[in-house]
Design a protein that fits this description.
Layout (H helix, E strand, L loop, with lengths): L1 E4 L8 E6 L5 E5 L11 H4 L3 H4 L8 E2 L8 E2 L2 H19 L4 E5 L5 H15 L4 E3 L6 H11 L17 E5 L3 H4 L11 E5 L5 H8 L3 E3 L6 H14 L5 H7 E2 L1 H8 L4 H8 L3 H17 L2 E5 L1 H4 L4 H14 L9 E4 L6 H4 L8 E2 L3 E2 L3 H11 L13 H6 L9 E5 L3 H4 L3 H9 L3 E6 L11 E4 L8 E4 L4 E5 L12 H11 L11 H12 L11 H5 L4 E2 L24 E2 L18 E6 L15 H6 L4 E4 L1 H6 L7 E6 L3 E8 L7 E5 L13 E4 L6 E2 L3 E7 L28 H6 L3
Helix pairs in contact: 3-20, 4-20, 4-21, 5-14, 8-11, 8-12, 8-14, 11-12
This protein binds ligand MGD (2 copies), iron/sulfur cluster and molybdenum atom.
Length: 725
């Protein structure tokens, strides 16, 4: 038996993985503070990834565009790529090659990928999928607190809260075991849909506020207004610990609850009631404000996250015991992934790439000249959209992401991926993006190697190897080392041993905002709880901002923000608001979970959640196939009618590819600060369609959600699945 952590989300539930007599792997939950012995359905079935028939076990090379991929040996694949990269750079300069990473990669991989881009390629063009995930909350947190760590407190703190406001987060489906920490709290859920999380709120005496997608800033400003009117604003805290309240308040002053109702659709009385519930809990028993992607993934997401932070600050929550503000990070290493240098503007340790001192420190450890380090590059969508353009990258190296499905305006992104001269993908399976590549490196995954991950609480943990990688498979670190060798780099600069990489990460992050200099495998194996900053000397920091915030004056900053409507609003041609997100049974682009039989059987197709009256208006009934069309493209999805979704809004999950790609509809409008795309609002129309590829109608789905918020703790696995939809 080996104990490790889940391959998927940021909760990083602990699990035991045991071999079964028939040569497979069985997963059981392990005790850990975040999951308290629970796992969701994806965790329970994760063992299947290790023996999947769909694993890639040999490098693949496409002899020419249009020809099928063919297996080859590692030396040939590495040499082919190394030579092509060197040629393209010799001809067009270092920026001819771009790199794209992922927040699911271990800290060691993220670090080495950033180093590879800056040092071996000398390119400024590196960014990663975390830009699509956390970037708005991160930007808002940085400007308010001077430091961004998703949750600046352990999740176990939430258990003591009287009231928790969840804005645009659906943890009952996206992190089910987290709900155990919210069992005793009154929940206020802000979501256009009556999600299982919202259901839980209402069932246990809380509130569900269902704003029109893209209007959260108005709602947050209105809640501040109402709290102010009810004298629930914490003047003592504001005076002692913050700056800028008056300017921020000047924007909230105009947001009377009736005005909020007009813009968001949330009844004015409900706004007052929510402000009362949150504000009085803040004063008496403790309250938290938590944000998720629903409120953040907008072209004004940074300001919206800021509006929630302003509300939290006005109520005196951040940096106090039993109170707080946090953002629920998403990917397994969503936190570490944004700290160690795969983001366009960052060097390891959450250092800024435009800071001369940071450049000096990093280049010293790397044995290079600070001037040799490239400047900041373009953000994820901009990078993908510039592929093959006149001044854009000619080649792309991609690790740990499937943007052909998950990037906004994905049809355009696929076109740009095809416009490269060389597309190289490292993946464990032939994802939609890998299927387009010229060269595919088959890499080890999850429990086939050891590495560190940083979960949603900033806790660094050890993801242990359970099984060796299959024959023919190498690790991402080996791929980077192999390519670096062909690019003329000295071997010692690109170690293939994760512990060696971690040692370098310790050295380079010493004294940085995300200080990992005290993170060692020995300490993690001994069970130490290491929340960064974890300096070599002294303790780690489960709770940040208790004494002071990270700005030079020690104070948090209110940043004044105004409400802006979404980039695209409905009109006669596209009368409905589309929003997108997640279903419990699939992960992200679905590259992994669609290959797990139990999961794909339970959720085989994209669906569109729509109010039955709205569906009827467009001639649609439960289980019909529908076609959704936006200004960018179209997709097919099965109708799932729900009475508890707004009549003007439809929802689709983005876990499916081909004709069911939700991102063929989404709008790549970008937030001016974070460069986050507007995944959560687009204008669409809806109509009947024939099934994709002659697909036959299946038995009707139930029009009710079995409460998937209950994590499957201590339950027989097969028993637990039977009561799902
Ligand atoms: N099952 C599952 N779990 C996952 C993942 C997965 O793919 N599948 N991915 C992981 C990752 S990377 C992430 S980032 C997290 C994301 O976790 P969440 O943020 O919880 O997930 P989402 O479904 O993207 O969005 C949450 C909710 O936002 C709502 N929403 C849409 N538009 C708006 C709006 O304008 N305002 C408000 N207030 N709400 C809105 C949606 O209806 C949705 O219920 O989940 C992680 N966990
Ligand atoms: N419409 C819409 N689009 C969205 C979102 C949304 O809410 N709505 N959410 C956005 C968010 S929050 C996110 S995080 C992104 C995520 O979207 P993606 O970046 O596409 O994430 P994944 O689907 O997890 O892709 C990870 C890929 O890496 C592979 N992989 C797994 N482990 C490893 C490894 O160790 N090494 C390598 N090299 N590969 C590995 C997997 O097989 C998979 O193909 O999607 C974004 N897109
Ligand atoms: S909530 Fe589910 S997907 Fe996330 S870490 Fe736990 S078991 Fe894995
Ligand atoms: Mo994410």
């Amino acid at each position: 038996m080996t104990t490790t952590h889940c391959p998927y989300c940021a909760l990083q539930c602990a699990m035991h993985v045991d071999p079964t007599p028939d040569g497979r792997w069985a997963v059981r939950p392990a005790e850990f503070p975040t999951n308290k012995g629970g796992l969701c359905r994806k965790g329970w079935t994760a063992g299947e990834l290790l023996t999947s028939q769909e694993r890639l076990t040999a490098p693949l090379v496409r002899p020419r565009r249009g020809a099928p991929l063919e297996p080859t040996d590692w030396d040939t694949a590495l040499e082919t790529v190394g030579t092509r990269l060197a040629d393209l750079q010799a001809q067009y300069g270092p920026n001819a090659v771009a790199v794209f990473g992922g927040g699911g990669l271990t800290n060691e991989k993220c670090y080495l990928l950033g180093k590879f881009a800056r040092l071996a390629l000398g390119t400024s063009r590196i960014d990663y999928n975390g830009r699509f995930c956390m970037s708005s909350a991160a930007a808002a947190g940085l400007r308010a607190f001077g430091l961004d760590r998703g949750l600046p407190f352990p999740v176990t703190d939430l258990a003591g809260a009287q009231t928790v406001l969840l804005a645009g987060a659906n943890p009952a489906e996206t992190m089910p075991p987290l709900m155990q920490h919210l069992n005793r709290s009154r929940l206020i859920v802000v979501d256009p849909r009556r999600t299982p999380t919202a259901e839980r709120a209402v069932a246990s005496g809380g509130l569900h506020l269902a704003p029109r997608p893209g209007t959260d800033t108005a709602l947050a400003l209105g809640l501040l207004h109402a709290a102010h009117a009810q004298r629930l604003v914490d003047r003592t805290y504001i005076a002692a610990r913050t700056t800028g309240f008056e300017q921020a308040w000047s924007h909230a002053a105009e947001w009377w609850p009736e005005q909020v109702e007009h813009v968001t659709g949330v009844p004015a009385d409900l706004v007052r009631e929510a402000a009362q519930a949150l504000g009085s809990a803040a004063a008496e028993g403790g309250a938290y404000v938590l944000t998720g992607r629903g409120t953040e993934q907008h072209a004004s997401g940074t300001d919206t996250a800021t509006a929630w932070i302003n509300l939290a600050l006005a109520l005196g929550l951040p940096g106090r015991e039993g109170r707080g503000y946090g953002c629920l990070t998403g990917q397994g290493n969503g936190q570490g992934g944004r700290e160690h240098g795969q983001k366009a503007d960052q060097l390891p340790g959450y250092r800024r790439i435009d800071d001369p001192e940071s450049r000096r420190i990093v280049s010293e450890v790397w044995g290079t000249d600070p001037d040799a380090l490239p400047p900041a590059g373009d953000s994820a969508y901009e990078l993908l959209a510039s592929l093959g353009e006149a001044d854009g990258p000619r080649a792309l190296l991609l690790f740990g992401s499937n943007p052909a499905v998950s990037a906004p305006h994905a049809s355009h992104v696929r076109e740009r991926l095809s416009a490269t001269e060389l597309l190289v993908v490292a993946d464990c399976v032939l994802s939609e993006t890998a299927g387009m590549a010229d060269v595919v490196f088959p890499v080890a995954q999850w429990a086939e190697e050891t590495g560190t991950m940083t979960n949603l609480e900033g806790r660094v943990l050890l993801r242990n190897q359970v099984a060796p990688p299959p024959d023919g498979v190498r690790t991402d670190l080996h791929v980077l080392a192999g390519l670096a060798h062909h690019l003329g780099q000295p071997t010692e600069r690109f170690p293939t041993d994760a512990d060696e990489v971690l040692a370098e990460l310790r050295a380079v992050t010493a004294g940085a905002p995300a200080d990992y200099s005290g993170v060692t495998r020995e300490r993690l194996e001994a069970g130490a709880s290491l929340h960064w900053p974890a300096p070599a000397e002294g303790t780690s920091h489960p709770r940040l901002f208790v004494e002071e915030f990270a700005h030079p004056d020690g104070r948090a900053r209110f940043v004044p923000v105004a409400h802006h409507p979404p980039s695209e609003t409905p009109d006669a041609q596209f009368p409905l608001v589309l929003t997108t997100g997640r279903a419990m049974g699939h992960y992200q682009s679905g590259a992994q979970t669609r290959r797990i039989e139990e999961l794909s059987r339970a959720e085989p197709d994209a669906y569109v959640e729509v109010h039955p009256d709205t569906a009827a208006t467009y001639g649609l009934l439960q289980d019909d196939w529908a076609r959704l069309v936006s200004r960018r493209g179209a997709m097919l999805a099965r109708v799932r009618t729900r009475t508890a979704i707004r009549r003007d809004t439809v929802f689709v999950p983005f876990h499916f590819g081909g004709a069911q790609t939700a991102n063929d509809l989404t709008n790549p409008a970008l937030d001016p600060t974070s460069r986050m795309p507007e995944f959560k609002t687009a204008a669409v129309r809806l109509g009947p369609a024939s099934p994709p590829n002659g697909d036959n109608p299946r038995p009707r789905q139930l029009d009710s959600v079995a409460d998937p918020s209950i994590c499957e703790q201590g339950r027989n696995h097969s028993g637990a699945r039977d009561d799902r939809r």
